[in-house]
User: Fold this.
Amino acid sequence: MMVDTILYDEAGCKCFALVVIKDSRRFKYDAKAFIGYREYLADTLNIYPCINFRVTGFENYSNAIAVLKDYYFNKLKGSGLGIGVYEGKVFN
Assistant:
């Protein structure tokens, strides 16, 4: 698992992270998002996967993370939608 992006709130107690996972069995790349929360800055983050959207089966890291970023930062921003993407196909 490779962390590409981590965004924190001003207090540092909430975060949003984008990660890419290389599936060595299929030689493909999947990407998904996680959220983290802690009560106090000194606490360890509790990490939870975002289950509404992920990308699966991309040929390389760059394409997988580019599609994930586009959906989270442009297309899904504020929509509350859940969508899955497999390279070349979109499922609603």
